[in-house]
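A further point concerns the way the authors explain their paired sequence and structure data. An entry of this sort, consisting of the sequence and the corresponding backbone structure tokens, reads as follows:
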Amino acid sequence: MPPRFTSLIRNRPPLPLTSNVSCISTFLLPFLHTPNRKSSILSNLRDNPGAFRRRRRVGRGPSSSKGKTSGRGHKGQKQHGKVPAGFNGGQTPDEVVHGSHGFKNNFAIDLKPLNLSKLTSWISQSRLDPTHPITIKELRESRCISNVKDGVKLLAKGSEELKTPINIIISRASAQAIAAIEAAGGSVTTRYYTNFAIRQICAGKMDPVNSLQSAFPQQDEEGGVKGLSRRRYLYRLPDATSRKDIEYYRDPAHRGYLSHLVPEGQGPSLFFRTPGTGQRVEKGAVKSKDKASENRIW
């Protein structure tokens, strides 16, 4: 093994300090002296207090609080071995007698409930500004809601306390909550959010309101959509893709952000036609040959 650099410095004779030492030797003088730090610190490495907990050794006497029976108690199957889950002493297990009922809905969304009473309390405490639009970002920063997964649903509990007009953009809202806010002079807009979008909105990396399918009355000078800034935000707010979500946010009764896409006199459904909008075809009607000939290619 080659000798350490510090050992070479120790064996080196000290340099004489004279008055005619050049500026270069003065600059190198601190590096030539023996350092105070030890050559190896591996022997002094330790974990932080509480970072490592030793395994409890059982059966090492009564002073260890886990001696003799090692914490298993006296006799029985639980001391001598393991008991299977759902074991009832040999009789038919409960899951066999009663069976399993119901199912787990993998398409269910987890919405955080928000009552109007709590929203009114936050406004009265000046924790929310009613003069500006209230989005999930403002609700999260003011700690009005927490642990939001798939969105927030506005409920009408405490609607009689609401007297201030507010403009709120939220995932979903009940009919009673919409009526209470509009009666106070405010407005409700429901729009689609994902779990990823909510996290990026709270981090300030995504627009909480505007997306490609949002309704914009004007355009900017560059010909783009006014209000949809690509320079400020890192990610773009996604729109609804499934038929169930699209039909919900196309419904004007839900105050959806896609309701401007529904033509006048038609419903929000993408599959069913609105009664009275289609052409009535009588039974036994024969198609004319002229129309059939027009559809021919050659």
Remarks:
- The longest helix spans residues 23-32.
